[in-house]
Design a protein that fits this description.
This protein is mainly α. It is built from ten helices and no strands.
C-alpha cells in the first residue's frame, strides 16, 4: 500500500496506546475501516486486523487472521511485517494453549539474517518453550539475547546461556 495508508495505520496505533480496554471495539473498527481500503484478502489488511484483535485481548480471534495473512504472502509484501506476524502469531498460539506451534513457527527465525526483531523472536520463543516445560532452553535464549546489551559480562553471560542447553561432560 502507499505511504499515506501506512502513516494513517501508524497514527491509529499511536492513538491506541491511550485507549481503555472497553474502547477496544472502537479501535478495531478504526483498523477495519483502514483495512477495508485495501483489496479484499490483502495480507496487510489481514495483518492489521489480527494485530487489533490481539492487542485488545482476543488472541483467539487473531490467530486465524495472522495465519491467513502469512498464507496470502505477507512476508513477500513486507518482510518486516511477515516476521512480526510470526512473532505475534506464536505469542497468540501460546496464549491459546498451543505453544508447540509457536516453537515450530519461530525456531527457523533464529537462522534468518539479523534485524531489530531478533530479541522479540527469542523472547516469545522462550515463553513458548517455558509453557512446554522447557525452561532451561527458554532461559538460554533470553540470556543469549540479553548478553550483547550488557555493559559488561557479555562473554560470560553468552557462555552461561550455552551451558544451559549443552550436554554436560
Amino acid at each position: 500500500m502507499d505511504q499515506d495508508w501506512e502513516d494513517r495505520v501508524a497514527a491509529a496505533w499511536a492513538r491506541f496506546d491511550g485507549v481503555a480496554e472497553e474502547d477496544g471495539a472502537a479501535f478495531r473498527a478504526e483498523i477495519d475501516a483502514l483495512a477495508d481500503e485495501l483489496p479484499a484478502g490483502s495480507p496487510l489488511g489481514l495483518f492489521e486486523r489480527a494485530c487489533a484483535w490481539d492487542s485488545t485481548g482476543h488472541s483467539d480471534r487473531a490467530v486465524p487472521l495472522y495465519r491467513e495473512a502469512l498464507a496470502r504472502g505477507l512476508g513477500e509484501v513486507s518482510g518486516h511485517k511477515g516476521r512480526r506476524a510470526k512473532i505475534q502469531l506464536s505469542s497468540s498460539l501460546r496464549n491459546t494453549g498451543h505453544p508447540e506451534e509457536g516453537v515450530k513457527l519461530l525456531s527457523p527465525e533464529l537462522l534468518r539474517p539479523s534485524d531489530e526483531l531478533d530479541d522479540a523472536v527469542r523472547a516469545v520463543l522462550a515463553l513458548c518453550l517455558s509453557s512446554m516445560g522447557r525452561d532451561r532452553e527458554g532461559l538460554s535464549l533470553v540470556l543469549g539475547a540479553l548478553a550483547p546489551h550488557l555493559p559488561r559480562y557479555q562473554r560470560s553471560m553468552a557462555a552461561y546461556a550455552r551451558a544451559l542447553v549443552e550436554p554436560e561432560d
